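hey so u asked for the seq, here:
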Amino acid sequence: MKNTGKIGLLLILLFLCLGLFFYTKQQNKTVKTPLPRAGTAEEGKAAALLAPLPAEQEKQDSGKKSGGKTRINGKANTKSRPQEKDSSVWVKILNYHAIFPEAYLKSEDPKLNRFTKPSDRKLIVSAENFEKQMDFLSKNYKVVSFSDFAERIEKKQPYGENAVIITFDGADETIYKIAYPVLKKYNLPATLFLHINALKLDKTAMKWDTIKLLHDEGLMEIESHSISHPHLNRMLKNETQEAYEARIRKELVDSKNIIEEKLNKKVLYFAYPYGGYNATVIGLLKESGYKASVTVQWDKNTVFTNPYALRRRGVFNDHTLKKFEEIFTVKVKDDPREYAD
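ran it, structure tokens below
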């Protein structure tokens, strides 16, 4: 009886040992997936899985690269601009429309102050403030011409220091009568983006002989701001794509041809009316022979910025000297479009 018990116990132990043996053998047959080797497709997949999410990547890139979202007419467009290469040297472009003496801006007399709408008045900088702003720029920053910067973008050749560009939109006579003497005083180059129809429709617009004088003296470049100042990125009601492109092409080509004929110069640069543009407009600009264009959305530019989406800051009548100085020292996000439709 005792022997039978011992035999039973031995059989139980034997079965346990056999079970453990087969279980271990089966586990050893399991093949572990090797880590991807450098240069393999698996490595790329692994890297993609380990890469940060877009929000994390944006946070990591902050302060290192400028780029990301472009705002077109106040709306974010994440596809129109690739990430830019890092550059510690920036170029900031300023935008003016008209310069009026402070007394005129405060006057309610329509003979003195033709700007009755608040949105119109916002675009006007007082002569006193403009003088202070130009004095500040002359003492603190390198001011360059728009064409010089555009050529550096083509060559990817940055400046040795931060730089500023002064631009005007439209054709208001105060650009010549008030702003231009100040620019000459400080020897500051500027660019006028000319709205062609304003020369015929606005009683206070400059005449062609004045514009030619500006061009001939060489301190102010004359470029295009379209014929009729439309929203280039908007199709008209019931307008076909073909008709839309023909209309936009006419705005770009005719304005270019008129300025070139009147001034005997090449027109290579454009300012989007209201800052509105899209891929079609950019394509037509290239087709028409333009090499660069400016928006009304604010940020720094570098020689790696998309030349057809250069950022510009509007200077308005509420820009005190302190607020003006902060344009260059305080980091701000793209501002909402501040121009009247």
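The two ends are 108 Å apart (CA to CA). Residues 163 and 232 are 29 Å apart (CA to CA).
lmk if thats what u needed
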